[in-house]
Automatic annotation (TrEMBL), chains A, B, C:
Native source organism of the sequence: Actinophytocola xinjiangensis
Keyword hit for Hydrolase: yes
InterPro entries assigned to the protein according to its UniProt record, in alphabetical order: Amidohydro-rel (IPR006680), Metal_Hydrolase (IPR032466)
Gene3D superfamilies the UniProt entry points to: Metal-dependent hydrolases
All copies of domain Amidohydrolase-related, residue ranges: 163-357
Name the record gives this protein: Amidohydrolase
Single GO molecular function: hydrolase activity
Keywords: Hydrolase
Superkingdom of the source species: Bacteria
Amino acid sequence: MAVTDDVVLVDQHCHGVLVTDVTAEEFAAGLTEADTAGRPDRWRSMLGLAVRRWCAPVLDLPAHATPAEYLARRNDLGWREVTRRLLRAAGVGHWFVDTGYATDTSPTELADLGGGTGHEVLRVEQVLEDTTAGSATELLDRVGAALRASAAVAFKSVVGYRGGLGLPARRPSERDTRQAAERWLRGGTRLTDPVLHAWLVHEAATVGAETGRALQFHTGFGDADLHLHRADPLALTDFLRARRDVDVVLLHCWPYHRGAAYLAHVFDTVSVDLGLMVPFAGARTGAVIAETLELAPFESVRYSSDGNLLPEIHHLGAVLWRHHLGRLLDEWIGDGVLTAADAERLAHDVGGGNALRSAPHLLGDLDDQR
Amino acid sequence: MAVTDDVVLVDQHCHGVLVTDVTAEEFAAGLTEADTAGRPDRWRSMLGLAVRRWCAPVLDLPAHATPAEYLARRNDLGWREVTRRLLRAAGVGHWFVDTGYATDTSPTELADLGGGTGHEVLRVEQVLEDTTAGSATELLDRVGAALRASAAVAFKSVVGYRGGLGLPARRPSERDTRQAAERWLRGGTRLTDPVLHAWLVHEAATVGAETGRALQFHTGFGDADLHLHRADPLALTDFLRARRDVDVVLLHCWPYHRGAAYLAHVFDTVSVDLGLMVPFAGARTGAVIAETLELAPFESVRYSSDGNLLPEIHHLGAVLWRHHLGRLLDEWIGDGVLTAADAERLAHDVGGGNALRSAPHLLGDLDDQR
Amino acid sequence: MAVTDDVVLVDQHCHGVLVTDVTAEEFAAGLTEADTAGRPDRWRSMLGLAVRRWCAPVLDLPAHATPAEYLARRNDLGWREVTRRLLRAAGVGHWFVDTGYATDTSPTELADLGGGTGHEVLRVEQVLEDTTAGSATELLDRVGAALRASAAVAFKSVVGYRGGLGLPARRPSERDTRQAAERWLRGGTRLTDPVLHAWLVHEAATVGAETGRALQFHTGFGDADLHLHRADPLALTDFLRARRDVDVVLLHCWPYHRGAAYLAHVFDTVSVDLGLMVPFAGARTGAVIAETLELAPFESVRYSSDGNLLPEIHHLGAVLWRHHLGRLLDEWIGDGVLTAADAERLAHDVGGGNALRSAPHLLGDLDDQR
C-alpha cells in the first residue's frame, strides 16, 4: 500500500483515443514518437515492456504476455471494452484534453469512456489557423475573442515545434504584429511567422492571466519533426521572467527536466509536468521523477500522461506514476527523508492538487478527495 | 560509521549569515533562489524537508518538526545560539567566504560563530566596481594592484551572471581594454561590458597564477537573474584551454555537472565544486555526487556548501555531504568497487584536501587532520 | 550468473593497442582523455579503480592491488602476455577497429592477440587527407572510389572534433564542393573546411547506404581538443532527418546520451553506442546504460569499448558492461519489469546482435552464438 495508490489523478495533459480496433502496425506506431514503426521493434523498449507488464492483466492476460497474444486479446475484446478498462483503471478524476491532436474522441467522450470529467485544453496555434478574417485587425481581434470566449481549462502552445521556445520578453509592436497578420492573411496555413507567433503566445498569456487559466508549452521530448535543442525549456527564460502574471506549465521536458525544475524553482508561476516521459521511460519513471524533484518545489510539479491514440498510454501514465513515485516515497520514508504524511501530501499535490489550484472552478473536487 | 564522518571539512565557497532573528517570510526566502517566497511553499522541497529532518534535532526538536515549530524554537533560542549550534555541528576547519554577498558577518566573524578559521574569497567584479580612478590606466593599474595586495584565499567571478561564461581565450588588446575602461569611468556602476569583463577575469587569472590562488566561477544553478544556458561551464572551454596556468574551480555546476566533470577530466587545472546543490538537492545529494564522479578525477572535486544568510544552509551542506557521500562510498565498498582506504582518501580529498592543495599556506592543517 | 555472462560481444568501435611495455607515465596517460597526466592522479578515478579491481586479477594479483604493484606485474608479464590475457578475457567475437588512431596493431593483429575476428572501421577524414590528386574532380572521384573499394565494416567521421556536428541536410552544390576541393589541394593537411567536410560525410553516407555499411560519428565525451557543445549529437538532427538511407551510429554520446537516445527513438536508422563511457564511468556504468535505455529502442543500442592503446580499456569495456548491465537486468527481472527471456534477448542484441545486423555478411556468427 503506497501513498500514491488512492490518489484521484488529474491527467492535466492528454489527448483523445482511437475509436477503432488497430492492426499490429498501428499499435506499434502508437508506441513511438517516430514517424516509422517497422524496425526497430517498438515492443522492445521500456514502453513496450510496460504495456506487456501492466496492461496485459487489465485485459485478463498474464503479465508479460507476448505482443501477438496482447494484440489478439485486444481485438477480441474490441477497442471500446479495452479503452474502458484501461482508462477506468487509471483512476483519473479530471482529463485535461488537448484537442489539437488525436481528436477521434472529444474531452467528454474520453471521460465517458474513462470515468471522471473531461475538459478542453485549447491549442492556441489552432485557434489562429482556424480563424478567418478580412483584415489584420479583424484577425487579431477574433483570435483574442476566441481565446476569451473559450471554455477551455488551459491553453497550450506548440511554438517549441515551430520557431522554438526563444520567445521575446515583450509582445511585438502593434505595427509589426499587424504586418505579420497581413502576411498570414495572404496565404498562411501553418503558423511559422515568429512575430505573429510571439504575439499569439503573449495574447494567450494575457487572456490566461485575466481568466485564471494556465498556459502550457510543449518542451523537450516529442516526435521526429522536432529540433530538440529548440524545445529546451530554458529558452523560455526571458519570456517567463517578463510574464509573471500567468501560470505556465512546462510539458514533458525530458531530457531537460532538470533545467525545467530550475525554472519552476526560480519563477513561482512555473510548473513542471511529468507527462510523456512517465509512460515512455517505463521502469525508469522513478529516476526521472527524482531528478525533477531535486529542485522543483513540490507544489510546482504536475502529473499527466500525454496519452494519445492508444488508451494504453493514458493507463501506463497513471500506473507507472503510482508504482514508481510510490516506491520512491516509500524508500524516502524508510530513510527518514520525510514522514508518511509529507509523502501523502506530495502525492496528492503532484497527482492532482497542483493542477486543480490553477483551475479554481474545479477545486471542489480537490476537497472531496482529501 | 561512514568514512565521511570525521572529515574536517573545508567549506571552500560560502557566504556570511544574517545576524538577526528572522520572520517566517525571511526564512522561506532563504530556502530558495527565487526572488519571491510566497507560493509555492518553500518548505515543501528537498531542501525544506532536509531542514526539518537534520536541523530540527540540532535545536533540540524531533526530526521532521513542523515549520511553525521550527521557527518558534529558532526564535526562542535566538539567532546567535542557533547559528553557533548549526555551524559548529558542520565540522568545518576552514571557511572560504565570498564577501560579495550576505555580508553581515565577515569571514572572521563567521569562524568565530562556527569554529575553525575564516578566509576571504574576493569577488573580482566588486574590486573593479569599488575602484575609483582618474584615468583608464589608473583604473586598470589599481584593480591589478588590489588583486595582488589582497589577502584573499581565492578569487571569484560572477561573469556567468553578466555576459555569460563565453570568455575569450586571450586577454583583450590594450587599446580595446583602455577604451572599455574609459567608457566605464564615464558612468558605469555594474560591470557588464564584455571587453572590460574579459580583461578583469584574465587579470585575476594572471594574479592567481602568480600568487597561488584559484579562480572560482559561478556556473550552473543560481537565482532568477540568471540565464542558465549562459552559465553552462562548457562555455569556458576556450578560456580554460588557454589559461592552464591558474587553478580554476567551477562552482555549483548543476544541471551541467557532468559537463563540468568532463572539463575537470581533460584540464588538470580545473576542479568541480559540489556546493549549492548539496544542500538544495537534499536526499538527492548522493545521486548528484555520483554523476559528478563518473568522469571527474577524485583530486579535482571539492566540497562546499554555498551557505548564505541562513546557517541552516552551511549546516546542511556538511551533513548531507557526510550522509550521502558516506552512504555511496559504503555501497561501493560493499560492492567491491574500492577499498575502505580508497574511500577514506576520497572523502578526505573531496572534503578538504583538494581545496587546501591550492591554498598551500593552509596545508599544515591538512596534515593535522590526517 | 547474469544474462550478460555468456554473450559473445561485438566490440563495434575500438582501436589498436601499444606493442611495448609502458612506463607509469604512459600508463597514466592511457587512463585519461587529458593531454597531461601528472596531477591529478589518474588512478584516482572511476576508471583507475576499475583497473585495480577488474584487471589486477587477470594478471594474478589480488583485486585492488596498488598502482605500483599493478605496473610492476604488468611489466614482469610483458605487454604481449598482458594484452593476450586482457583481450581474451573480454570474450569478444568481432573487433571493429578504427584504424585512424592507436595504429600499432592492425585489426587482424588485435584479433590475433585477443581472439575473434578483426575488421576495419575506416575514418573518412583520413581517406581524404591521404588522397593525392591533380585536380578537384580527381580528388573527389578518388575519395569516393576509395570509400567504395574499402573492405571496411563501417565508416567513421570525426567531424565532431573539427567543425562540429551541425552538418547540412543536403550535400553542398557541385560548384561549392569543387571550389572547396581546389582550396584543399592548394595546401590542406587537416580537413577543417566545412564545405568539403560536409561533402565527405554525405559521400560516405551515400556509399554506406549503397554497400550496407553504417556511418559512425564521434559525439560527446572525448579529449581536450574537443568543444563538447559542438559534439552534441542533437546537432546532427537535420542531417539525420535527411539521410534516412544510411545506418548511423552515435558513438560515446555522454553526457548527451539521453539526447542521443531520443534520436535513436525518432529515427529508425540511428543507433546509440555505449563505448568510452562504459569503461570510463567504472561502477557508474549501470546508471549511464539505464539512462540510455529510457528512450532508445533496445534494437538501437550497441556495445563497444572504444579501447585504445591500453588493452585494459578493451577489457574493462566488456567486464563492466557484463557486470553492470547484468545487475541492472537482474534487478529488473526481480521487479517484474521484464522476463528472463526478454533480458537475455536485450543482452544479446546490445552486446552484438544489433551491430551485426548492419554488417550482414557477419550475421552467420550471430546465429552461432544464439
